[in-house]
Specification:
Length: about 220
């Protein structure tokens, strides 16, 4: 399904400490909120699964920013060593830079902001939410590792939705443990029959629906 009124993607660059990160920003007309995507486990802003979710969120009236948490050089190293994808502190730091950058972008920066994290990016999203409670108003995790956020889970004030595949038993158990450590508004949604990558027919559509409803509800109330 295509967006009824496609909006061009703007390629943007943002400075995160001593590196320059690239992203794709899309702002539908009349957007009610902005969602930043945090990729993980070797993925990037070109992740087909997250791009499907992003398109659905835009149909729901939300702007999206998909960007790389690692520089091109770091991604090259990570492909060989898998070192950076599990450096949650680094990923969260990069995401905080992106949140601050987004907050300064004129009218777009005034929109309530949410974070969508996949795999290890979910832990980075929760850490960033804990560090920027005044800016991050909602978090959604898709097949994520929220447990890797550690003690920061208890500090997250943003309403948090954890989405896990029903046939992804190891991740489901870790999400159930993380859910118990979140102290504020939270919910766990299980997509029946889905595995870790939600590749089954209709699984990603259900993720998109759940995420869209969560962000619409939590971000609209902040206007």
């Amino acid at each position: 399904m295509r967006e009824p009124h496609p909006v061009p993607e703007a390629v943007v660059q943002l400075a995160a400490g001593n590196v320059l990160l690239e992203g794709n920003l899309v702002m539908p007309e009349g957007a009610v909120g902005m969602v930043l995507f945090a990729h993980g486990s070797g993925s990037s802003r070109h992740s087909p699964r997250n791009r499907v979710v992003a398109q659905a969120l835009r149909r729901a009236g939300l702007g999206t920013l998909l960007f790389d948490l690692l520089s091109a050089e770091e991604e090259s190293i990570d492909l060989r060593t898998t070192h950076f994808r599990f450096d949650i502190a680094l990923l969260a730091e990069r995401l905080v830079y992106a949140v601050d950058w987004m907050a300064k972008r004129g009218e777009a920066g005034k929109l309530p902001m949410g974070l969508f994290g996949a795999s290890t990016g979910a832990a980075a999203a929760l850490l960033a939410a804990a560090r920027r409670p005044e800016l991050v108003r909602a978090v959604v995790s898709r097949g994520g590792r929220p447990d890797l956020a550690g003690q920061a889970l208890a500090e997250v004030r943003a309403p948090t939705l954890l989405i896990v595949g029903g046939d992804d038993s190891p991740t489901l158990e870790l999400n159930q443990q993380a859910l118990g450590r979140l102290r504020f508004e939270k919910r766990l949604e299980i997509v029946p029959g889905a595995t870790h990558l939600f590749e089954e027919p209709g699984a990603l559509d259900e993720v998109s629906r759940l995420a869209g409803e969560w962000f619409q509800q939590k971000l609209k109330t902040e206007r």
